Amino acid sequence: xxxxxxxxxxxxxxxxxxxxxxxxxxxxxxxxxxxxxxxxxxxxxxxxxxxxxxxxxxxxxxxxxxxxxxxxxxxxxxxxxxxxxxxxxxxxxxxxxxxxxxxxxxxxxxxxxxxxxxxxxxxxxxxxxxxxxxxxxxxxxxxxxxxxxxxxxxxxxxxxxxxxxxxxxxxxxxxxxxxxxxxxxxxxxxxxxxxxxxxxxxxxxxxxxxxxxxxxxxxxxxxxxxxxxxxxxxxxxxxx
Amino acid sequence: xxxxxxxxxxxxxxxxxxxxxxxxxxxxxxxxxxxxxxxxxxxxxxxxxxxxxxxxxxxxxxxxxxxxxxxxxxxxxxxxxxxxxxxxxxxxxxxxxxxxxxxxxxxxxxxxxxxxxxxxxxxxxxxxxxxxxxxxxxxxxxxxxxxxxxxxxxxxxxxxxxxxxxxxxxxxxxxxxxxxxxxxxxxxxxxxxxxxxxxxxxxxxxxxxxxxxxxxxxxxxxxxxxxxxxxxxxxxxxxxxxxxxxxxxxx
Lengths: 240, 251
Ligand SMILES: Nc1ncnc2c1ncn2[C@@H]1O[C@H](COP(=O)(O)OP(=O)(O)OP(=O)(O)O)[C@@H](O)[C@H]1O
Ligand SMILES: [Mg+2]
Fold this sequence. Notes:
Chain A is an alpha/beta fold. Chain A contains seven helices and nine strands; from the N terminus they run βββαββαααβαβαββα. Chain B contains ten helices and no strands.
């Protein structure tokens, strides 16, 4: 177990955002979180990272090496892409940093400042920064949201590669069901605000062997869509 | 940020500055001809002659040096105190509100009153320093506070998650955030100090100084001399500006 959440509750003023969320993240496990916009996913990550204290419940952490790809890139505007990635771990050898940069397809932009990068490039820079940190727990808040389809697929397989090598745990928030199907050992579905866990799926197939068109994954996908639509009767998210 | 029109084509824009200076000089010449009395508006040539006389006089160098010294001393004191207090007030709200009345008084009190009080309290050599630093303080202080308040808390959170050390956080996040505010404040404060210190010197009459020289030229009814000293003061302010801009660019 790397992190355990027990009956976490969080409100902002009168607004309840998280209600009684409990789950554990095990070592070397990827958990994907799906949930409606504004339900409290980012808030949950902030609580796990220790940035936001919960109102009730407790978070047990077995590590203090937590990496966090925030929903926004959060780069230092006065540092270049290279320096931003280096910022969280100064002693990474330059060859490794350059390898990291070329792996995410940003070679040639090492000396650009964030205001000279596109949204997706900034996002990838923030992902590379998290990879550079060698965390034991990696929190990712919609990390691939501004990337095109092929880049997304590439990043997913790269993430799996890095995860296999470093054997860290990943908590991955996304709105894309397919991302969750390809990545997650478990998929947690959250309700509308206040967020509760309405369902957890477990996928036993190894990430490398998954195919979106396979029967197992298609079944899970359909079930997830049903749950999401059902939990949001008034304004359907999807029309399956 | 890249689309600011003032930043485009710096070379072209410089030519506008030169054109503008040319027009001003022509206008000045025309007005001086039209008024016809050098004691009211001296012509550019008369001013140049006066300027050359002043520059050749070794005492003028001492005057510029003395005034410069006052500005630098006053500015050093005010910048150190305003950075220290500004940083503390930026992080600690009670101090900010505690200092607020004092800063407001410094800001609102007429400069002339400060000058007169300083002359009453201090020797004529030191009074202008006190005046300069009191007038510049609220300006720098408020810029520092603004810089601290406007630090992006998202970046601080990011650094906290990644366990970035305190010193690195100050060096790499706090200082760069405050820098632009601080430099903007420094640039305005220095320009203001040139004016205020000289004004205080005109009244307090220290032995040799730009302000005293102004007073002497005026007493001799030498308006061209007053104009010439004004040009020296303007050049001084412009030099400070260039230095600040240089620091801004290199750091
Ligand atoms: N610091 C805060 N103060 C007050 N309210 C907040 C704060 N942070 C979040 N909220 C509120 O909490 C709710 C959940 O926000 P959160 O950012 O966790 O949603 P989310 O699930 O990440 O949404 P999205 O998918 O759009 O990113 C929102 O209604 C938001 O207005
Ligand atoms: Mg969010």
